[in-house]
Design goal:
By secondary structure, this protein is an alpha/beta fold. It is about 55% helix and about 15% strand. Strands 3-2-1-4-5 form a 5-stranded parallel β-sheet.
Length: about 130
């Protein structure tokens, strides 16, 4: 499988572990054939609320994932420039464009999302994007 970048939806689904979506997210994260990359943007999406609400188990889950990530998308100015280009090219929201750019900057083999297959994120061709919903 190689280097995998997961978006925040995958981490949130895995941390909750509920239903088919949670099972699929956990299967991705538990796959021993994968190494993971991430970015400050994913961390910003998942950590502030559980920290504020003192949901210790959820915070620990995310922190464990981030501690195990083998690559981090940097420099941030390069990620933002690439995100803008990908956003314009594919009609992406700001955060989805940042995730695509971060995945590309780290050289990820794939980006796995919890977005629906009809999401603009899933029409990106610059990088293999797979949804755990499909």
């Amino acid at each position: 499988m190689g280097l995998t970048f997961v978006d925040s939806g995958v981490l949130i689904a895995a941390s909750r572990g509920v239903g088919e979506l949670g099972s699929r997210a956990l299967a991705v994260l538990d796959d021993p054939a994968r190494t993971f990359a991430s970015s400050v943007f994913v961390r910003l999406e998942v950590l502030p609320k559980p920290l504020f609400h003192k949901r210790a188990d959820e915070v620990e889950f995310y922190r464990s994932f981030f501690a195990a990530a083998s690559k981090w998308a940097e420099p941030l100015d390069a990620v933002v420039r690439r995100a803008y280009a990908e956003g314009v090219k594919n009609g992406l929201s700001a955060i989805d464009a940042l995730h695509v750019a971060a995945a590309m900057i780290v050289g990820a083999d794939e980006l796995i999302t919890a977005e629906r297959a009809t999401s603009p994120l899933c029409r990106v061709k610059s990088l293999l994007v797979r949804s755990i919903r499909s």
